[in-house]
Amino acid sequence: MTAATRSGYLGPAMTDFMLVDTRGGHDESWHRVRVAVVGRDSDLVAWSGDPEAPVFWRSAAKPFQLWPLVVAGGVSAFGLAARHLALACASHSAEPAQREVAREWLDRVGLREEDLACGGHPSLSPAVAAEMIREGVVATPIWSNCSGKHAALAALAKHGEVPIAGYETLDHPVQRLVRDSIAGWSGVPAADLRWGVDGCTAAAVATSLTGLARAWSRLGTTADPAMASIREAILRHPELIAGADRLDTILMQSWPTRVMVKVGAEGVYAAALPTLGLGIALKVEDGDMRAAAIALVAVLEALVARLDPAGEWPFDAVARWREPEIRNTRGTVVGQTVARGALHFT
Questions:
Q1: How many structural domains comprise the chain?
Q2: pTM (whole model) above 0.85
Q3: Which of 104, 165, 202, 334 to pair with 342, CA 20 to 30 A apart?
Q4: 133-183 pLDDT, tens per residue?
Q5: Is residue 160 part of a domain?
């Protein structure tokens, strides 16, 4: 019997959580959102949609892809600092400081940029992407939002004295260590993990949404020294995890130590609320990334209202993501994205 069945989940309902884009007072687009919230005891606390349906973790997997290097002694072996661990967990904007930390990764491990299997791409930040165009920048692997993760995976290969080439592929020894890490932290048997290829070329894992939420709950609360050092690095360096004007960084800077947030591609978000012992995972079913950020803020507000109403959470810092207005090219308001339905609580 699944956690969802134990809690009374009977399948998708009209009252499930979703976002709706309106225009001229009429509904135009619907973004259905699956949500799983797991507590300290690994049981489901709240959900929407089917929390047991599979989801690719995408970049929300990065702390668990880093853990094998840290637990194997890679921090001391390569002289790594908290900023390096944070960048390995990041989907960064290729801002100058972030690229500098990526270069430090390569220097400390003794790697070349060509050793990174990820390809370059325009920045996730519109401002940085525009600057790249103006300056004629050719995006090399260090500009990839996943360059820190790839540096860590290549470092794990070097530390384990196995070939660096192919570290991103599922049959490489590095990815077998990653598989075991994800299985352990998610509570999903390794044989039940599903695999594909991520946009950055590395193996991409899928589990139930509950498995992703469980892993993030444990990330936020574990006493395991290696994972605790990863948690502290993320909390210490939110500016490296995403970048200026991005939700992940703004949330963690506004709520220091109280929230950890990580975007994933195709409408995925994961988060931990360490003080409440909660892990959160959501998937916008149509993959809309704009909707994913709006959904995360709405889910956080719903959880805080229910579980910590006296907590004085500073939601004003992320007000732009609360049911935002839709404007045309002249800046005139023509609609709004609104939340409908609700989370179900056990």
A1: 1
A2: yes
A3: 334
A4: 999 999 999 999 999 999 999 999 999 999 999 999 999 999 999 999 999
A5: yes
